[in-house]
Amino acid sequence: MASISLLNPKAEFARAAQALAINISAAKGLQDVMRTNLGPKGTVKMLVSGAGDIKITKDGNVLLHDMQIQHPTASMIARASTAQDDSTGDGTTTTVMLIGELLKQADIYLSEGLHPRIMAEGFEKARDKALEVLDQVKVPVEINKKNLMEIANTSLKTKVHPLLADLLTDVCVDAVLTIAGDKKQPVDLHMVELMEMQHKTDTDTQLVRGLVMDHGARHPDMPKRLEKAYILTANVSLEYEKAEVNSGFFYKTATEREAFVRAEREFIDQRVKKVIELKRSVCDGTDKTFVLINQKGIDPISLDALAKEGILALRRAKRRNMERLALACGGTAMNSFDDLQEEHLGYAGSVYEHVLGENKYTFVEDCKNPLSVTILIKGPNKHTITQIKDAIRDGLRAINNTIGDKALVPGAGAFEVRAHNELTKYKETVKGKARLAVQAFADALLVIPKTLAINSGYDAQDTIVKLTVEDRLSPELVGLDLATGEPMKPADLGVYDNYIVKKQILNSCSIIASNLLLVDEVMRAGMTSLKG
Amino acid sequence: MDHTREILTFQFGTYANYVGAHFWNQQEANFVYDQENGGNVAEEQLPHNDILYREGRNDQKQTTYTPRMLSVDLAGTLGHLPVVGELYGNFLQLADEQNADEIQKVKELAEQNKLSTHGELDVRKQPAATLSEYQQDLLKGAVNTHDKDYNLAGTCNSWADYLYARYHPRSFNLLHGLVRQPDVQVLGTHAAGVELWQSVSFNEDFCDRIRMYAEECDGLQGFQLLFDIDDGFSGLASKCLEHLNDEYSRASFVLPLHYPRNIAYAQADPRTAHGIRVANSVLSYYHLSEQANMFTPLSTLETIWRNNTLQSRRLPGLHWQPDNLYQSSAVLAAYLDTVTLGYRLRQTPETLLRFCDRVCPSGRKMTAAALALPLGMQQEQDLIDYLDQGASGSLFTQLTPGCEPGNSHIVQSVVARGIPHARLKRPLELAGPQLRMSAYKCDSVSQMLQLYYQCAYHGSLTHAAATPLPLKTQLPFPYEIFETRVAADGFMLPGEAQREPKSRVASAPALAAIQNSSKLGEHLDALHGQTHRVQVAKLQGYSQSGFERDEYETALDKLLEFRDNYEDSQYL
């Protein structure tokens, strides 16, 4: 009897072998659920909820969230997978698969009496060796469009149809390259705005070198389209707030209050006047036009005054768009209208409005040297857009990772096969029972090419044998060609994975798997009730 | 400036959504589609719906009219409702028989759009959610409000079961991963709510939705916030209020709601549960006293924090099951609807800010709620007589737990509804004894109430408003809570008479007030009195979410400072 039951008779607990069995079965269960997702030939799931909500996804992460996991072990693995997604944006399915497989392989030896502690130590050794192999096989790459296209394409092909993937690849690479310029540094992906438009018939994704905002002018007389526009971005309230006027009992007479109200209104009018003055000074006599984009509100009276001057004014812009605007069009976001100068203004070749149902969109395009861009996703319904959006997000991450790593790892299971072979060799140098754990680790890695083969309809054993033999013979890495089921050189087909993703997977999987192995007691405290 | 003064409403938590659902049902029951037959209520005395509602257009080019509202709730509370709402498509109508075809169609369309990597999509369908009988009839357009007994009180599992109103796709925010459990509150502590607010995935999307609503508004005047104070939604609401003040700096009227029963928390015995409840309240009150323009705790319970027997308030003429969420939330919603009518009527100069400031002198931001439903007026009785005879007792029942503002030195705002002008007093020739009353010179309901409270409450300040529009109490309002001595029009039957057993109360007059007096300090004392039993460090829910002890200490100190506002010497 576990000691906890002396303290709390309501506690439930499971010990040693039983605890391990719980953990292993949970990991395997999760692996089974995720198995069919892996790789470009994995199936895409359409989830229909009890209320009729539709979700289309292949993302392991989304699926895990949707399953609302209650099992403690499973939720731990799910969390590891989420962490993987947060830090690298890819490899969530692989994480789950690998953890499951590590436990499965470990189980074989554990059932023969190997102590989990030795297993864990062996895993650690194997992981270090695998990381070494990873460093050896990584291919340093030059950051150019071709290389980035290849990595983005590999990532996107696992999410959507190849035809769509090709289109998205172009968009993603162009987006990142536009922002990165010549610097070859990872970019701030927040500067790529993803804007969605639900359109009945149109499915299209395009890159806008500028900004698209999800709101428009709120005055009927404001221009719908402007060319050669100066852009003033501001965070200044242009609405008359009664707030200060009403609170407190400061007024002796009604006239005094009236005067105060007028003064307050005057204050706002002054601000509007300053904007108008600036507009006149920079635009009068030229063909230039003027746009005001404000993070705070603009009330109808101010809108009216601005509309009379032909100024297009937008209120309540997204906070992040202030930053984006400054990068896309130049200029600075103003926090006050005192001392407005021309150099504070940004510039865009064209600004126009697009109305779709109850939603308005404002395009700010033809910027001089945009350091912030927008990817515009059009789709006939919400779930289509969401699916494309998720894919784009992963594609962008993959590109950014590559720029950061300046290296790639050959994909299509090539690394796993090589690591397997290297580990098998390495095993011989390991003393004692830990070598069994190294072997287990080596075998577990093969789950990736195996699943790729199964998902593409090939025989798993057959493929693995072919691949491992081929790998031993060839100095170059060998991966699985999903179209033929034969070994191939990933470099030839341009199939690459991110270095950081693989590294992260090796690290987190071995740690989680070890932790789960070392669990020798699972308990769940019941209610500790003194009163009964 | 003659534009709409919009108000944005927030509902945080399950019970808040219960109350909210009743509130919006009530709004729609009062829509007048045909001015000609709009009944006997003059146009300017109807609520101005644009304040709370927005007009929109869905992609079928249909015009929609939906509440400006944002709701946050646990996963699993929506039941049959798709999270995107039902007006803008993007979901499958599962109640229909042919939905197998529909799924097939969606699937094919998605494949055409190249969403599948190769081959077909793998469809995984969860079993369709069960529709309550009321919703089934609503779908068929065959709701029978007169005879059919839907037994909503007994069968309703969630507020979605009796929701008549339809929401905009922006409105629902489900907390994925936090699934509602029948016996345990999943999001337990204030600190957990704060953490949730700060998480990127929630925060960005939610703040963007607030911004979208605010962008549409020409003259946003403020916010109404409803939230569950007993669980983690209190933290969410506190943080949200902070955000609103930072970004929008508008008036905010906040209503913390206490569940009518004690909810349990994960891994907590009754004692710890009590500790969590008190800590949640302390932290919320602290935030509200700093951030809100006014806050009014609401509950049908008589007292909270230390109410082991769960003694419920009783309104004369009503009888509801004390722990029933559906029925008790209807009472609170009736209060909310009535008391807010003051600033929602057409052509009223009243604003939310003025409404708040009027009853919160010198920093006394906490106010108490009081309701009279149904109003004890008898059929054929005039208001003047009713006030004359009932002058001895207070007309109200308090709806703020543990608050008795007393009947002197009160600042209050009173709204009366459903009293037709003809029932004010009798015309001169028939007046008889009424002529001798000083109230006879009053020409409107609000004037008469003003005078009444001037006389009845010593040294008090009363602001009264009135509309002849009664509270609609047909389905989905729990009409069954009215006792048999209430007539179908909501007035009391004279003597021992009883309503015909088959007939239902369709509408009722009501009187609601928001009150403030130095006696409310006792409510804060009661809360403070509970705190020394609580050791925050020992509350697991709090220690888990990296909660700082100092923050709790600060909150306690500030609470005492806030209580000082209620000292007699502080007022005038």
UniProtKB/TrEMBL annotation, chain A:
Top-level division of the source organism's lineage: Eukaryota
CDD domains the UniProt entry points to: TCP1_zeta (cd03342)
Pfam families referenced in this protein's UniProt entry, alphabetically: Cpn60_TCP1
Any one GO molecular-function label of the UniProt entry: ATP binding
Gene3D superfamilies the UniProt entry points to: GroEL (3.50.7.10), GroEL-like equatorial domain (1.10.560.10), TCP-1-like chaperonin intermediate domain (3.30.260.10)
Keywords from the named record: ATP-binding, Chaperone, Cytoplasm, Nucleotide-binding
Subcellular location: Cytoplasm
One GO cellular component, as annotated: cytoplasm
Database matches in InterPro entries: Chap_CCT_zeta, Chaperone_TCP-1, Chaperonin_TCP-1_CS, Cpn60/GroEL/TCP-1, GroEL-like_apical_dom_sf, GROEL-like_equatorial_sf, TCP-1-like_intermed_sf, TCP-1_chaperonin
Main location: cytoplasm
Family membership: Belongs to the TCP-1 chaperonin family.
Protein name, as recorded: T-complex polypeptide 20
Organism: Drosophila virilis
TrEMBL record, chain B:
Domain of life the protein comes from: Eukaryota
DML1/Misato tubulin domain span: 156-345
Cellular component, GO annotation: mitochondrion
Cell location: Mitochondrion
Stretches assigned to the Misato Segment II tubulin-like domain: 5-139
Keywords in alphabetical order: Mitochondrion
PANTHER family reported in the protein's UniProt record: MITOCHONDRIAL DISTRIBUTION REGULATOR MISATO, PROTEIN MISATO HOMOLOG 1
The family this protein is said to belong to: Belongs to the misato family.
Protein name: Uncharacterized protein, isoform A
Name of the gene this protein is made from: Dvir\GJ16019
